[in-house]
Amino acid sequence: MFKRLRRVRLNPTLRELVQEHHLRPSDFIYPLFIRHGEGIKNEVASMPGVYQMSLDVALQECEELLALGLSSIILFGIPETKDSIGSEALCEHGIMAQSLRAIKERFPKMFVSVDLCFCEYTDHGHCGIIDPKTQSVDNDATLEILAEQALILAQAGADMIAPSGMMDGMITTLRSALDKAGFVNLPLMSYSTKFASAYYGPFRDVAQSAPSFGDRRTYQQNPANRREAILESLRDEEEGADILMVKPALAYLDIIRDVRERTLLPLAVYNVSGEYAMLKAAQKAGIIDYERVMMETLLSFKRAGADIIITYHAKEAAKLLSI
Ligand code: PBG
Ligand code: ZN
């Protein structure tokens, strides 16, 4: 007599009873890209189904999301004008602050996170202030404006702040700035382990945030480094992050698992633009069963140890999950 593992796979109900991981609409955070204007809904060529929207269109979108059981979004802003320090991000009438106020007023139940960074707002496209001597981002000068930006977004009603710029000390700085201003209960979801990845390509078309010179390798992390990846997340935990993140997701499932095993904090993953674009291109070419590949991919993040999935697939996945 030998041991038969197939015994629990024969009956579909039993298969479900022994299923270890599940996807739910409440696992997802859906990214929205908001720009100035009215009636604007521009599809991004590399990311079918993803749009730059004006605020009026984004509000309609929120209604649709809530109807699908998606009540968590993360906002990215596309400013009117860019300059060397990203001034629009530091103005309470900027695109993000304005959008936050409008969305929270109309849909108080929508949980609205904001991406906190400067690359969309600077004319050079880097994630902070450039130090003219090194031509790289000046870490400590950037911390100061990050704190300013965070306070503006907190005052505008953000439910969670998600700093994505990979500056050292950003969590300490933001936590103390928010606490001093009375926002002691506003959570920080840190993009704690963020690689310098070619998978962000399509995002930079949507967010219009590609660097005009150089790359982000002096602040984002080398994809070859596992120990450093773990250290980055653990450091943000020590600094007081409430939720950690690994980004990108698909090529870094090992790192998701590594971080999961070393922290007790909730863990998010960012299923980034290039990952989405690859599946969409394969769907268009008719070479994969798109829906199944999508669900299998999303499930792999849960299995690797993620609690939260930031994904452009959220709407499609939520529709499938409701059937
Ligand atoms: C901004 C930011 C980026 C992404 C999220 N926040 C781009 C970057 O670092 O260049 C990427 C998201 C995606 O590719 O979907 N710092
Ligand atoms: Zn950035």
UniProtKB/TrEMBL annotation:
<feature type="binding site">
    <location>
        <position position="216"/>
    </location>
    <ligand>
        <name>5-aminolevulinate 1</name>
    </ligand>
</feature>
<comment type="subunit">
    <text>Homooctamer.</text>
</comment>
<protein>
    <recommendedName>
        <fullName>Delta-aminolevulinic acid dehydratase</fullName>
        <ecNumber>4.2.1.24</ecNumber>
    </recommendedName>
</protein>
<dbReference type="Pfam" id="PF00490">
    <property type="entry name" value="ALAD"/>
</dbReference>
<dbReference type="GO" id="GO:0005829">
    <property type="term" value="C:cytosol"/>
</dbReference>
<dbReference type="InterPro" id="IPR013785">
    <property type="entry name" value="Aldolase_TIM"/>
</dbReference>
<keyword id="KW-0456">Lyase</keyword>
<keyword id="KW-0627">Porphyrin biosynthesis</keyword>
<keyword id="KW-0460">Magnesium</keyword>
<feature type="binding site">
    <location>
        <position position="204"/>
    </location>
    <ligand>
        <name>5-aminolevulinate 1</name>
    </ligand>
</feature>
<feature type="active site" description="Schiff-base intermediate with substrate">
    <location>
        <position position="247"/>
    </location>
</feature>
<dbReference type="GO" id="GO:0004655">
    <property type="term" value="F:porphobilinogen synthase activity"/>
</dbReference>
<feature type="binding site">
    <location>
        <position position="273"/>
    </location>
    <ligand>
        <name>5-aminolevulinate 2</name>
    </ligand>
</feature>
<feature type="binding site">
    <location>
        <position position="232"/>
    </location>
    <ligand>
        <name>Mg(2+)</name>
    </ligand>
</feature>
<dbReference type="InterPro" id="IPR001731">
    <property type="entry name" value="ALAD"/>
</dbReference>
<feature type="binding site">
    <location>
        <position position="127"/>
    </location>
    <ligand>
        <name>Zn(2+)</name>
    </ligand>
</feature>
<feature type="active site" description="Schiff-base intermediate with substrate">
    <location>
        <position position="194"/>
    </location>
</feature>
<dbReference type="GO" id="GO:0008270">
    <property type="term" value="F:zinc ion binding"/>
</dbReference>
<comment type="similarity">
    <text>Belongs to the ALAD family.</text>
</comment>
<comment type="pathway">
    <text>Porphyrin-containing compound metabolism; protoporphyrin-IX biosynthesis; coproporphyrinogen-III from 5-aminolevulinate: step 1/4.</text>
</comment>
<feature type="binding site">
    <location>
        <position position="312"/>
    </location>
    <ligand>
        <name>5-aminolevulinate 2</name>
    </ligand>
</feature>
<keyword id="KW-0862">Zinc</keyword>
<keyword id="KW-0479">Metal-binding</keyword>
<feature type="binding site">
    <location>
        <position position="117"/>
    </location>
    <ligand>
        <name>Zn(2+)</name>
    </ligand>
</feature>
<keyword id="KW-0350">Heme biosynthesis</keyword>
<dbReference type="GO" id="GO:0006782">
    <property type="term" value="P:protoporphyrinogen IX biosynthetic process"/>
</dbReference>
<dbReference type="InterPro" id="IPR030656">
    <property type="entry name" value="ALAD_AS"/>
</dbReference>
<feature type="binding site">
    <location>
        <position position="119"/>
    </location>
    <ligand>
        <name>Zn(2+)</name>
    </ligand>
</feature>
